[in-house]
Structures are given as structure tokens and as C-alpha cells.
Design brief:
The structure is a homodimer.
Chain A (H helix, E strand, L loop, with lengths): L5 E3 L5 H7 L4 H7 L1 E4 L4 H8 L4 E6 L15 E5 L1 H7 L8 E5 L15 E5 L4 H13 L4 E4 L9 H7 L7 E4 L3 H4 L6 E10 L9 E4 L14 E4 L11 H16 L1
Parallel strand pairs in A: 1-4, 3-4, 6-7, 6-10, 7-8, 9-10, 9-11
Antiparallel strand pairs in A: 2-5, 3-5
Helix pairs in contact in A: 5-6, 5-8
Chain lengths: ~250, ~250
């Protein structure tokens, strides 16, 4: 590392306050900065997606000695208390600051392109786990309906394992407007068609309900179900979607 | 409801204190009582497993008016503050008190019976999600290795959706002794054999690592992997196991 790093020690520092705003959805929307944490995800993202980041935050220069820093990523040393305030998962490992990308608004009157997931998961950890499975099993686009958590919330980033950087994320409308979306439309439901006997189309929209609520009854989507023993009344929502995505991925290979 | 319910108003009441001990693993072990919460799970468990419960707790008798109460389940009215202290998920819905069953110690020198899951998940929510998938996809027995969360912890019950009542739960030894277990032994690993091309034996032990750590390198289990796009470095652990259990369940049907 040849550049001497900037040192920030005051909680009143405007840059620190900007990064602090990345810890909740409101600040993410207002200021457009996000914080990536994680012993595996930070080095991976820095290697694979250097253009997404602008700062590398740490407390001790020894932590990043020998790291190949891309030209656009400036190292910044923080006083330990400031660093801990940003390191909400307690990784004790350098953090990356990135710019939240724009999420274009989808036009649902147009047909789907590949497998599109439509969801309004309000819990950032649940949304993150879903994004991880979506990236792992080849969903092309994820549409965040009104009420969905922010996909760059620290908890969502933590659960997603860098899935945000390989997915196309789009904004969607409210539930009421989903009913008029161009199909084919599908939704998961315990009473639907067994998805292991289903011939997956190339392009489709798969709609996920809110946590604990499912898809509205008036939604015109065809219902698909994951076959089970029947020993539990339902699957965990993230597990059900992940299994569905896997079944399609395995069937199309 | 013909029996007038007992009313408890003091936090010093010995029965209340007993139920309060069900909120953590130590109290669960010491006193052997557990608390089941949930708008769907409580009525379902009362209908399907009445023999597992001894008390139904509520704050207002109107909440349980018309409930068919089995003979062995005594209704108990609690002062609102006491009820809230036990209703840690904030359901505002009657709670069931049950007796924690005995978990026999497994003899791993004996061959497996059906699909046995061996795990040491220390987070009760993660363990609960795993139990739910195990019950849904036909794992016959779940072996809780040393360090696993208590399967009747409130968070585990909440995540498992009554899976505890249909599974055979056993206690297991420490990691070091798992290496000597009778096989066939399998473990999930990103670099293993593609499990969609795997011929599942009827009887096997599937070993799950601890959160974020995986299975110890010296564990002699054959590694299986869930095929993915490669766009994320790994799957969420619960998702990976659930997909594996589903793949086996679907293949054997």
C-alpha cells in the first residue's frame, strides 16, 4: 500500500455520518451509500466488482497490508469506536463502502424475461437469503414490490453473500397492480400443482407473498406446490422458494 | 368451557416461575417444560398431539371460548404482564405448556435407520428451520450433537412449525466421535459430487457442519454438492440441506 490512508476520529465527520446513514433503509435511499461486511464477501467483492466501491474502511493499517487496492477505492482508517459503529455484524474485518445502484421501475405490462421473482419481503435477512438462492439458481431478475426491504440493508447484504452484484434488481408496483401483470404468472402454495411434475416455461413471473401471509387470494397466478410428507403444515418461505428455483434449475440443465 | 380457570397474578407464583424457565436452554434442561406459541401451531398441536401438553395459558377467557380442551390440558388465566413475559414472540394468542420429551443417546456404532441428520446448529432459529425441512422431506431421525441448540427453545419451536412432534430426536456425541460413526456417511460441500446425479441409499447419515464452519476436514463423510450457477460462493446452510432433503425425497417417490 503506497497511499497513506486518511484517518477519521470524530463522529461528527461528514463522511463518517454519511456511512452511518447506510445502516438503515431511509439513509440508504437518501444518501445512496452501502456498507459491505464479511470475511469472505469483502475480499471477493473487491476482486470481482472493484467498480462498485469507493472506500475501504479499517482500524489498523496492518489489516489491509498487501491487499491489492483498485485505483478507485480509497483506504480510510477509522478510530475503533467509529469502526465498531459501522461494523454492525461485528466482523472486526475491513468494510467496503459502495454506491447503491439505481433500480429501474419494471413495466409489468411487458412479458417476463427469464425467471423473474416478484416479492415484497419486508425482513432484510429473509430478502437476503432469497437473493442468494435467486443468484445460485439462475433467476434473471428480482422485482422488489412496494413494502420490500432495501436490498443493500446491512442484514440483507449479510444474508445474500454478494448475490446483489450478480442479479438484476428492479422496482415494482404495489400488490394491487401485480394482478394485472403480463404472464405467465405463478405462485407457491401448499395446495397447488406439484412442481416436480411441472414443465417450466423459459420466461415466467414467480410471485412470493409477504412473510406469513402468502399471495393475495385474488392474484390470478397459477399455484405450484413443493411436494412434502405432509408432516408439517408448510415449509419456511425462503426454503420453499429456494426448492422451487432449484427444481427448475435442475430440470433445465 | 365448563371448568373455571385458575388465575395467576403474581410473578412469584411457583408455576409461573417454572414456565418462565422454559424461555432458555438451561431452564428447559433443568425443569423440562416448554412453551408453544403461534396462531396456527397452537390449535394444530392441541388437536393433533393433546397428550404432549398440560396447560393452556391465556389472559382473557374469551380467547379460548369454544376451544375443545382435552382432559389432560388445564386452562390457566394469567395477568397480562405475566402472559407477555412468556409470549416472547408477541403472538397475543394462547400458549401451550408441554413436557420436554427424553432424547435417547444414539449409538453411532450401529448402522443408520433411514435418513439420519447429524447436526450441531447452535442457533435455535436455524435448528428450527432445519427440523421443519427434515419433517417435510422425510428425515427419519435428527441427532443433536454436542453444542446444538435446545430443540424446544421458543425460537426453535417458532421456526419449526410443530416439526418437533413428528420427528425422532436423539442426542449425539461430540464432533470427534462422529468420525467413527457407522456409515454410509455424507456431508454437504460446495466441491462434492452433484447430488442430482446421486443414487441415494435407503439408510444413511447426513452430517451438517456448524454455522459458517462446515464439516471438519478430517470427517470421513463423502461430500455431496447442490448444483448452482456459481454466481454466489455458497448457499445458505439451511437452504442447502433443505434442497438436498427435497432432492432425495423427490427421487425416492
Amino acid at each position: 500500500m503506497t497511499r497513506p490512508p486518511l484517518l477519521i476520529e470524530s463522529p461528527q465527520n461528514p463522511q463518517f455520518k454519511l456511512w452511518e446513514s447506510a445502516l438503515d433503509g431511509r439513509g440508504l435511499k437518501k444518501n445512496g451509500k452501502f456498507l459491505l461486511a464479511g470475511l469472505k464477501t469483502v475480499p471477493e467483492a473487491l476482486r470481482q466488482r472493484p467498480d462498485r466501491f469507493e472506500r475501504l474502511l479499517f482500524t489498523d493499517p496492518a489489516q489491509i497490508a498487501g491487499w491489492p487496492l483498485p485505483a478507485g477505492v480509497e483506504p480510510v482508517q477509522l478510530a475503533p469506536a467509529l469502526f465498531r459503529a459501522l461494523d454492525v455484524s461485528g466482523t472486526g474485518f475491513p468494510l467496503l463502502v459502495g454506491n447503491v445502484p439505481r433500480f429501474p421501475m419494471i413495466d409489468l405490462s411487458q412479458p417476463p424475461q427469464g425467471l423473474e421473482l416478484l416479492c415484497a419481503l419486508g425482513d432484510p435477512s429473509n430478502l437476503g437469503a432469497l437473493l442468494r438462492s435467486a443468484a445460485a439458481f439462475g433467476a434473471s431478475r428480482v422485482v422488489l414490490l412496494e413494502g420490500a426491504a432495501h436490498p443493500f440493508h446491512p442484514k440483507c447484504l449479510r444474508a445474500a453473500s454478494n448475490a446483489q452484484f450478480s442479479l438484476t434488481l428492479l422496482r415494482g408496483p404495489r400488490w394491487a397492480e401485480v394482478n394485472a401483470a403480463a404472464g405467465p404468472l405463478y405462485a407457491l402454495d401448499g395446495g397447488g400443482t406439484d412442481l416436480t411434475r411441472f414443465d417450466w416455461p423459459t420466461d415466467l413471473r414467480l410471485i412470493l407473498g409477504e412473510e406469513g401471509q402468502g399471495v393475495p387470494a385474488d392474484c390470478p397466478a397459477v399455484r405450484l406446490s413443493v411436494p412434502t410428507t405432509g408432516n408439517v403444515e408448510s415449509l419456511n418461505a425462503t426454503v420453499a422458494v429456494s426448492v422451487a428455483l432449484f427444481a427448475r434449475f435442475a430440470a433445465l440443465r
